Amino acid sequence: MVRKQIDFEAAKKDPSRVFEHPADVLRAESLSMNEKRDILRIWEEDARELQVAAEENMGGGEPDRLQDVLEARAALEPSRPDSGSAHGGKQGYH
Questions:
Q1: Residue 43 — φ and ψ, nearest 5°?
Q2: Is 11 within 8 Å of 18 (Cβ atoms)?
Q3: What share of the chain is helix, strand, coil (3-state, %, to 5)?
Q4: In 10 A of CB 17, how many CB atoms?
């Protein structure tokens, strides 16, 4: 299997131009875990901004990828305390 080289700098600027789907970031063998985290974090920020724009009727028709990005981030780091309680994890504070 040939490892496709990913342009990390281009992916940081606009992840959706480099990857078709957030889960594709997880499969990018040429990226380190930190690079994958960075790309998904940036993609999440972009998705949240697009969601706000859509709520204000300023969207440009882009697909809403926020849930997909959150799922990819959770798959990358399933034990993150801030990944929510979707997996039944205990928060440790109430």
A1: -65, -35
A2: yes
A3: 55, 0, 45
A4: 10
* pTM, entire model: 0.72
- How many angstroms separate the CA atoms of 40 and 15, rounded? 8
- Sorted by sequence, the CB contacts under 8 Å of residue 41 that are 6+ apart come out as 73
The token duo for 75 is 């798959």
What is the distance between the alpha carbons of residues 66 and 58, in angstroms, rounded to a whole number?
17
> Shortest CA distance to 37 belongs to which of 72, 62, 61?
72
CA-based torsion, 19, 21, 24, 25: positive or negative: positive
**Series of mean pLDDT values for 10-residue runs along the chain (94 residues):** 75 94 95 96 93 77 83 83 46 38
CB of 46 closer than 8 Å to CB of 52: no
- C-beta of residue 74 within 8 angstroms of C-beta of residue 52: no
